[in-house]
Amino acid sequence: MESREIDPTATELQWWGKGNEFPRDVLGCTQLRSLSVSWTNFRVLPREIGRLRNLRVLILASCGLSQLPEEIGQLRELESLTLSYNKLTCLPKSLFTLDKLKVLGLAGCEMLEVPEDVGSLRNLCGLDLSSNQLEKLPPSMANLEKLTHLDLSYNRFSEIPLSISALSSLQSLNFQGNKLTRVPPSAFDLPNLEFFDLRENLVPEDEKEALRAKMPKVKDLLLTEADSWRNARPVIYCWFVEDNGAGGSGYAVMDASLAKPLRPGERLYHTLDEVRQSLKYQEGNIPIVIPKRPNCVPECWKVRSLTANEAAQLEDSARSRQ
Fold first, then answer.
1. How many domains does the chain have?
2. Counting beta carbons within 10 angstroms of the beta carbon of residue 11, is it exposed (0 to 12), middle (13 to 18) or buried (19 or more)?
3. pLDDT above 50 (res 264)
C-alpha cells in the first residue's frame, strides 16, 4: 500500500510487511474504525496515533515496537487492541484508562510483569499474555469480573495466582508450558470454566488423575498431549456480520478457546462453505459450533446470531469432508 492509495475517508485499513516507518498518511484518516499494521519494523508509534479517536479495533503485531506513546490513551472508543510480538516490557499508564477495551493481546512481548493498573480494564473479556516471562500476576487481576478467556501459556508460573480464583466469568484458562507442580483447590471453584490446559507442566501423574474427578464440569481438561488428540474438538463461535463498520458483511469465526480470530485481521466469509474451508479439522473431529457472537465483538459491528439451520449446515458441511 502506497500513500497515494490511502483514502482519507476510509473506515478500515490493513498494512503489513512494508517499510521501516509507520504509514503517516494513515494518521489523517480520522474516520478509521479498524486499523491493522503487522510484520513491519517501524519500532516507534507516532504520538499522533491519538488523532484516530474513532478506532474500535487496533492491531500492531510484529512491528518491532519497544514502547508506546501515552497518546494511546486518547483512543477512548477502542474495544480490541492487539500488540503481540513486540518488545513492550513497559506499557504506558494511559493504556489502562481505555474503559471500553474488551480484548487485549500481549503475546510474545518479553514482559516480566503485568502492571497493577490492568485491574482498571473492567470490561475486558479476553486477555492474551502467552509467550512472555511472567512468574506472577498482580492482585488487581481479581477486578476483571467480565474476563472469559485468559491465556498464560508458555510463561514461568510455578503456581496458579490466587487472583484467578476471583474470575467467576472465566470460561477458558490456558497454562500450557509453565512450571506448575500442583493445582490449588481454588481452581475447582471457577463455576463457568469449560477449557483448562495444563499440558507441559510439572504436575505429578497421580494428581493429574485426581484432577479429572475434581473438575467434572470442565469439558476440555487437557493434562497430556493424549488429551489434546482424544478430547479437544474444534470449538468455534460463528455469527453473521451485517455491517462491520466499514460496509463489509459476511460470516465471521473465532476460536472459542483462545478468544482470538482464526485468521489475521477481521476476515468475513460470503458462504458457510467458505467458513468450513478456512478451518483445519483433525481427522475424525467434528467442530462444535457456537452460533452466536462472543462478548468481545466490537460494538460498532451490526451482527446477528446464526439460525439453527445455518449452524446445522456448517456442521454437516464439515462432517461430509471428514
1. 2
2. buried
3. no
* Residue 109 · residue 133 · CB < 8 Å: no
Question: Cell triple for residue 213?
Answer: 474427578
CA distances from 210 to 202, 231, 316 (A): 15, 17, 37
Cell of 298: 466490537
What pLDDT was estimated at residue 272?
80
Measured from the Cβ of residue 275, the count of other Cβ atoms closer than 10 Å reads 25
203 burial level (CB within 10 Å; 0-12, 13-18, 19+) = middle
Q: How far is CA 1 from CA 8, 43, 59, 254, 268, in A?
A: 14, 19, 17, 27, 21
Residue 280 burial by CB count (10 A; 0-12/13-18/19+): exposed, middle or buried?
Answer: exposed
Q: Of 192, 212, 230, which residue is a domain's last?
A: 230
Query: Is there a single domain that holds both residue 277 and residue 220?
Result: no
Query: Which tens digit of pLDDT belongs to each residue from 76-123?
Result: 999 999 998 899 988 999 999 999 999 999 999 999 999 999 999 999
Specify whether the CB–CB gap between 202 and 225 falls below 8 A.
Answer: no
For 271-301, the pLDDT digits (tens) are: 887 877 776 554 445 566 777 777 666 666 7
- Asked whether residue 77 falls in the same domain as residue 179, the answer is yes
